[in-house]
Design a protein that fits this description.
268 residues, 12 helices, 11% strand, globular
Length: 268
């Protein structure tokens, strides 16, 4: 679960202290994140980025391994508007930094710095289309590995280790992970432990959006925080239960954020 009372003690970009530490958004905005990533890529220092939304918070309650994997990421951004609103309510203002909107600027940076890129997840068709699109938009970008794991892929099993070795052998220094939660976050921390010089960025359906194999909500719906309605309308059978669980957890999170805000005021 979220622990809003500890948020104010975390510095942006700092690794969280232990596998059982609270899950905390430690990226205040996209500019600070991009500056830190550029420094790390230039110094050949790795990183591991997760993008937090309410669905992930719900999953934390029933999947301890997922929650622990989250706390081992170097960077956690606010991927959903409810996370932004709750963080601000707790006295820890952050900006929305969706994973899917990081792909283009990170790819642009990789092209400029000469950082080879890998893509892992989704389907081979989507990876091929996304690679062609990104290399056309960002001249100089090198996509050196494209791997679409089979259905039923276990991000913690021996097959995952073989894929990590393949990615490492490709010469990639940065990898976009498009497996969906919790697989991409579990794989990311496992891969980061074995290839700590690399950057790992979990982006969900981001590559599918770029490839055109999935259609993202119109910009105006994203601007008003209604992207979830677009997704629900497109796949109500799969998403209705997920979004209901997110709605049900909001009262407890709101109350916890208010308590954290009160505690912060009392300390001042």
């Amino acid at each position: 679960m979220m622990n809003w009372s500890d948020i104010r003690r975390k510095k942006p970009g700092a690794a969280l202290p232990s596998p059982m530490a609270p899950v905390v958004v430690n990226v205040p905005d996209r500019t600070s994140l991009m500056n830190d990533l550029e420094t790390r890529l230039k110094k050949r220092k790795g990183f591991c980025i997760a993008t937090l939304n309410l669905d992930h918070v719900v999953k934390f309650h029933r999947d301890r391994a997922f929650r622990e994997a989250y706390t081992r990421h170097s960077h956690i951004t606010a991927d959903g508007n409810p996370i932004v609103w709750l963080s601000r309510l707790a006295g820890h203002p952050v900006h929305l930094v969706p994973g899917s909107e990081l792909i283009e600027p990170v790819a642009r940076m990789a092209a400029r710095l000469g950082t080879p890129v890998a893509m892992f997840g989704s389907t081979r068709e989507a990876l091929d289309k996304a690679a062609r699109t990104l290399t056309a938009r960002h001249p100089g970008l090198k996509v050196v590995s494209r791997i679409a794991p089979p259905m039923g892929f276990d991000p913690t099993g021996p097959e995952a280790d073989a894929f990590i070795e393949e990615i490492g052998a490709s010469g990639a220094r940065l990898c976009f992970l498009a497996l969906g939660a919790p697989k991409q976050e579990l794989f990311a921390v496992r891969a980061h432990e074995r290839l700590p010089h690399m950057g790992w960025l979990s982006i969900g359906a981001g590559l599918d959006f770029i490839a055109g194999t999935q259609v993202r909500a119109p910009r105006f719906m994203r601007a008003i925080g209604a992207e979830w309605l677009w997704r629900l309308a497109g796949n109500p059978r799969r998403l209705a239960g997920r979004y209901w669980a997110c709605i049900m957890i909001l009262p407890n999170l709101t109350w916890a954020a208010l308590r954290a805000r009160t505690a912060l005021r009392n300390e001042l």
